[in-house]
## 1
Amino acid sequence: MNAPTSVTVRVPAKVNLRLAVGPVRGDGYHGLVNVFHAVSLYDEVTVSPRSDLAPGQAVLSVDGERPDHVARVPLDDSNLAARAAALLARHVPHATGVHIHVHKAIPVAGGMAGGSADAAAALVACDALWEGDTPRERLLELAAELGSDVAFPLIGCTAVGTGRGEQLSPLPVQGTFHWVFALVDGGLSTTKVFAEYDRLRPDAPEPTLDDALVAALAAGDARRLGAALTNDLQPAALALRPELGDLLEAGRAAGALGALVSGSGPTCAFLAESADHARELAAALRASGTCADTVTAHGPVPGATVV
Ligand SMILES: C[C@@](CO)(OP(=O)(O)O)[C@H](O)COP(=O)(O)OP(=O)(O)OC[C@H]1O[C@@H](n2ccc(N)nc2=O)[C@H](O)[C@@H]1O
Ligand SMILES: Nc1ncnc2c1ncn2[C@@H]1O[C@H](COP(=O)(O)OP(=O)(O)O)[C@@H](O)[C@H]1O
């Protein structure tokens, strides 16, 4: 069979249903109990071979519906998708240079792991393009080398991440949960949010999982899930962006079952009772004037998939 001329992979964003953050470790990372949940907001990453480039070398292009977000995606070697192609090229025999095109829908620097999603998608796409047949376990290891959040979008659905978030165990979930994500202008640096967390919580305890959250997911109970959502980084994100407090309050006042900052923020996530309720909640949030825009999505959804 001939090698493919291009491969496109669709990859979901994540929201953290529980982000329990422990003390800073010797390597500068924080021990986490990080419950990832993949939602139906997708980037698409397309790779095609470039014979004028060295194996694993990439040129990038990006487009998407939000020009302000597209403009913030780096087009050089620091792009996580380019770093993923370079890393995989060192582990498969028939790597080529590649053009990587990212169609962006996941907010940039928004706490929804868009860069990590693109890196996971690039690993899957390049492995298919180069016919690497890299085993799943090896792809997960390579993903973890690229960042704490890169392994999760390979598996998607709902999973708890321990260590620095990269050691994943799937969690059973019944049914579908409906979400509204409120986008705000500008991003937040993950490093700065963790630094602010250290300042606010010098005495952080070891992170734990929450039985009530696990039970709510297994039962498909949105009301109980809403009550169990927590994010230890939220006070740090609110300290850096105080206006997010008004956004969370607007969502609660409009009847969200749960409201929290997504990961390191500043995107905020609101749990709804149904798809209809999510649309109503989104309209109320937009009318409140506390966010730039909203996106509705459902979860859990599968991880990076060749389309
Ligand atoms: C906070 C979370 C929650 O899922 O994601 P975002 O909300 O930003 O997407 C993650 O922990 C982010 O994961 P990721 O963005 O891959 O982080 P990395 O590249 O590994 O690390 C970036 C920086 O974040 C801090 N960091 C990250 C992970 C961790 N367990 N402890 C940390 O202290 C460190 O300062 C590190 O230098
Ligand atoms: N493919 C990519 N898409 C988006 N941002 C990227 C990408 N590669 C590198 N970055 C950089 O990573 C930073 C964090 O972006 P992102 O992964 O979208 O957010 P977060 O870490 O909040 O989930 C961005 O500010 C950008 O400079």
## 2
Amino acid sequence: MTHLAGRQPVETPLVELRQVARTFGRGRAAMVALHEVGCTVLQGDRIAITGPSGSGKTTLLHLIAGLDKPTAGEVRWPEFGGNPLDHPGEVGLVFQGASLLPALDVLENVALPLLLADRPYGEAVTRARAALEQAEIAELAQRLPEELSGGQAQRVAVARALAPAPRLIAADEPTGRLDTRHALAVVDLLVRAAGELGATLLLATHDPRMAERLDRCWEMRDGTLNEVTA
Ligand SMILES: Nc1ncnc2c1ncn2[C@@H]1O[C@H](COP(=O)(O)OP(=O)(O)OP(=O)(O)O)[C@@H](O)[C@H]1O
């Protein structure tokens, strides 16, 4: 596994899952997406969650980020004192599509989460500009989303996630709609930015070439988790 520059994990658990299961639906229609998964995410970890379609990557990522609740078992966030989503700016989320607001320019899109978290306007704009610099797209600040390529739009989505300086970055197939060159660039950006921020990074991907850029790799198979590297 590649160890790109940055801070190494310290042995402090950021997220702990104990015998976590997640079932969707009920009765005969019940679908067990996760079977008694136990794992620990350490501060500063950079973990790829791999596995085929339907193996449970998104379900696991959502539980770790606090977006979903288990149907059995326990998820704990010792460093956050409860669900991190209750603390605005602590979790940066990136999804397959950039989902930028079409009427706002790039700078406004990146500043928006900070404004929604009641940060002062000046601070939100300053942080948004810094995140665009970090993502190496400062020159796009005044563009509208419709004026961006797919790769540029996804870098804006990454900048939006980075702007509040989150402690946990959760990215779900963030490169699924990009060609290999742009996909690798976005993954490398996430890895570098996580190192610079001292943030923990979890990245769900079905692509082993993306997973190789991170330090640890968890492989999902039919709702169970195996660590394939450490
Ligand atoms: N809301 C839901 N209702 C019913 N079943 C669901 C729901 N969400 C996920 N599932 C099922 O749970 C299983 C795991 O889904 P999940 O999205 O976590 O897999 P994944 O590995 O992320 O897949 P992909 O790579 O295709 O995104 C799948 O069988 C899926 O159909």
